[in-house]
Amino acid sequence: MMNVTLPIKTAFLLAFLFCFPPFSIADENPVSVSTRITPDIFTLGDIATYTITVQHDADIHPAAPEIEPQKGLEFIEKGENPPQQKNGQRVHEYWYKFRIDDVGKLTLPSVPVPFSASGKKEPGKTIQGTILAPEVNLAVQSLLGISGSQEGIHDIKPLEDYPLPWMDYFWMALGALALLGLLYFLWCKWKSRPMSLILPSPTPALTAEQLAFKELDALKNKGWLQLGRIQDHFFELSEIFRRYLENRYQFPAREWTTEEITAHFKHFPALSDNLKLKARSILTQTDQVKFAKAEMAADEMQSVINFIQEAQPPAPEPANQP
User: Fold this and answer.
1) Using one digit for the tens of pLDDT, what is the confidence trace for 139-162?
2) Which of 177, 230, 276, 316 is the most exposed, fewest CB within 10 Å of its CB?
3) For residue 279, what are the domain limits?
4) Rounded Cα–Cα distance for residues 185 and 187 (Å)
5) pLDDT tens digits along 63-98
6) Are residue 134 and residue 47 in the same domain, yes or no?
7) pTM recorded for the entire structure
């Protein structure tokens, strides 16, 4: 306990409390402390709740003491109950929970409970002090020592000889071999089945003209001109025409500029001069609208269709039938 300066009456009462810690709360004491532990009977693994109760005057302010776990007790948690009023005094309860890890008699020793009090002769001055909480004993019983707990406990029976079921193993192995033989037979039958020589006919590839007409129909069905999406319409129309030139004449038309394509056509004998002029006109018109350099004057889709129809190679003549 710390050395403090107290009034004579208060010092006498505190000295009396330190020497004889009460087990019950007395109304005439300015501060008193008691302890209890629950439940009444303990066995290994049980949870014990240790409670310290401090009853004091209003000008005394206790604090939760620190509890050191004793041998055989494992600390779990601690807490404090809301303060209450009793006989004109305040009551504080501090609780601690422990797990029982040992049997026999266990003891929680006396614990000093710190508190502070206001000086009566010197207002505003705080006096520090402690009061001892009584020790608590608890008895932990062994599970074997509880009445009735030994019922049904017997010595281990000796091992008995049990013959191995060789015939059961034999029939199990024979069944497994028969199953493997059946699976092998079915696999051989499946392996030797006649393979069908009829193969699905591959889907014929579309010609450059067929692919271009299919893409033009899809673009027309989108109706972008009616929706006001003029640049989107001309951008896709330009891509369709360039893809057609690339597939039809085997050069990277989608990667080349209009000037590069025009220069390539100058020395390209597969196109007539009229088709070369039409190709240049289509590419130029679509570029101007596509890059917002000019307003749309007319749709170039029909020009693309006419170009493809005129540039389409002649169909092969059928062979003469005898």
Assistant:
1) 888 766 555 555 555 567 677 776
2) 316
3) 208-311
4) 5
5) 889 888 778 888 889 999 999 898 889 998 999 998
6) yes
7) 0.38
